[in-house]
Each structure stands twice: as structure tokens, then as C-alpha cells.
BMP family ABC transporter substrate-binding protein (Limnohabitans planktonicus II-D5), 378 residues
Amino acid sequence: MTDLSKRSIVKMVALTAVAAAALVGCGKKEEAPKAEAPAAAKPEPLKIAFAYVGPVGDGGWTFAHDNGRKEIEKAFGDKVVTTFVEKVPESADAERVIRDMAAQGNKLIFGTTFGYMEPMLKVAADNKGVKFEHATGYKTAENMRTYDSRTYEGAYMAGVIAGKMTKTNTLGVVASIPIPEVVRNINSFTMGAQSVNPKIKTKVVWVNEWFNPPKETEAATSLINGGADVLMQNTDSSAVLQTAEKMGKRAFGWDSDMTAYGPKAHLGSAVINWGPYYVKAVGEALEGKWSTGSSWWGVKEGAIEMVNVAADVPEDTKKRIGEIQAGLKDGTFSIWKGPIVDQAGKEMLAKDAVADDKFLGGVMFYVKGVEGKIPGGK
């Protein structure tokens, strides 16, 4: 190798070293890769519990509430965890169950029958961090509110159908507990029937329980033997419809669609859809917007509907049911509009006056056409 070649190589090496040094001096160096930020922790799901007065398979009231619970799961997925306890009696045992629900970490608790009101108030006072929802009651607290459905709207529509379908002009109601809700439904059923058939009379048998199929069966049999050929109920099982089926009479489903329990007897089902309210309530809890108060939802809010009206019901009657539902939805029709008189003929609501919710909440009288007396009443 010549001296020139050696010098060229040495020069190239030197230039390379200078260039590298220049790069270092300018801060051109390789940076270490940044560590990724840790993923945000997933929020804990909202724990929700339901106390049911009957079994989930009652086909009526509790079944309807459980359908609403399932709507919550469908709407919110893994943001919620729901559980329930069925057949919780309206007694001191209710307080034990509800208190246990709070102790298990449930932050939203639904009590689904009138008799849970006082027990829930007690538990709510001791668990300020838990939200309580009580169905059909009227007492509230800072962390407890009430909700209800306007079941009298379904009863009235059932009455319209019954008034057209009866052959004896005698209707029967199997009633549960003598509270305004039930008395209001008996009256509304009678008023609906009288709107199409002024000759209607309504007989009532009280069983003093929400869910007791043998007692409900016995009461329905008694009514049929007493001349009633169309029955309605304000109890929670399908026993009344099944009894009508066996005895060749007609009846209605109540709270849920009961068509399958007595397809020949079934004239229609006055159903409650709790889903819309339950989804709203849970949404408010999740968003931190929940507050105390009272809600009473009906046809207008999608909570009450008459479904599966029997094929042999006259078309003009079916049309009338559609008109009533439309009127209740847009506010152009009122069921409790005067004049309304009691059994003795005393005016309870003046002509053209429309009952407000305060009036409706205190109905403890029978309208003209209902026979007998309210247990414990005058």
C-alpha cells in the first residue's frame, strides 16, 4: 500500500470521528423508548338488588318486575350486577332481607310491594349511601323514593271489554289487600264496563293476600257461582284466569300477558311494563343524577297496555280500546272525570271535574254499581 493510500484511510477515519463528535454535540442521540401509561382501572359495576313479594314464576306481578330487572341488564351490560330475593313477606322479615341487601354492598335497592314501605324507611335511615326505590308506596326520604304504575288504566280498559262481553251483566273481581290502589282498580273496572253497559253490577271477593293461588281459585269459583261471567283480579297469580277457563267463563290477565294460562277464557291482559322506569332509575344512579321524589307512570309513559285482546271481542270495542289508549297517551281522555258518585249516590267528583293524583291516591269508596263493603271501611 502506498503512503498516499495510507494517508487517505487515516483521513477518512478522522473525518468520521469528527462527524460523530459533531452529532453528539448537537444532541443527536438515540432516545430510550417511553414506557406506556397504565390502563385506567375499570369502574366497579353498580350492585342492584330487588325484593319480590311473590315467586318470579307467578306469571303476574313479580314476573313483570323481573322482566324489568332483565331490561336493566340488557341496557347496561357489565356496568351493573343485579340480584333478587323472591317470596319476601310483608312483615318484619322484609326489614331483615332489605338490610342484608345493603350489607352485601348493593347501592340501589328496589322493594316491589306496598308492605315494604316502613321496613325500607328504617333501613334507608341507617344506610345513607344506598339509594332505595319503593313500589306503590307514598313515603319518601332523602335516599328513598317511590314509583308506581297506573294500573287503574288497564282495569278501565278491561272493564270496557267486559261490559260488552258479559251475558249476565254481572262482573266479578278477586281482590287482594283493601288499600286505595286495589279499590281504585275495582272502581275503574266497573266504570269502564258501565261506559258501554249501564246495567253492570260488580261483585268483589277479598282474599287479603297478594299471592295465594288456592284462595284466588276459591274466590273466583265463588264469584262465578254467584252469577259473574267475566272476572278480573288484583292478585298476582294466574289462578283466576285458570278457574274461568275450567268453568267456561271469561277473564283477564293481570300485570303480565297470561294468555297461555287460559286461552279460551282470556279476553285480554292488562300488563305493566316496568322496564322503562327501571332503566331510567339505574341510568340516573350511574350518572349521579338520582334524587328523591315520586313517579306514577301509565299508558303515557309506556308502562300500561292492554294486549292480546280476544278474537271474538267486537271490532268496535277493539277500536274503542285503541282510542282510550291514544287518549291516555296524549292527555285528551281522563278515566276519573265527574260526575262520579259512591254506592249511596253521594257525589264524590263533580260533573266535568278531573281527579288529580291526590284524589286518586285516597280512593277508599266503592262507586255506584259495586256491591258489598270494603273490609275495614264504613
In short: The chain has two domains: 46-150+275-301, 151-271+304-360. The chain is about 40% helix and 20% strand.
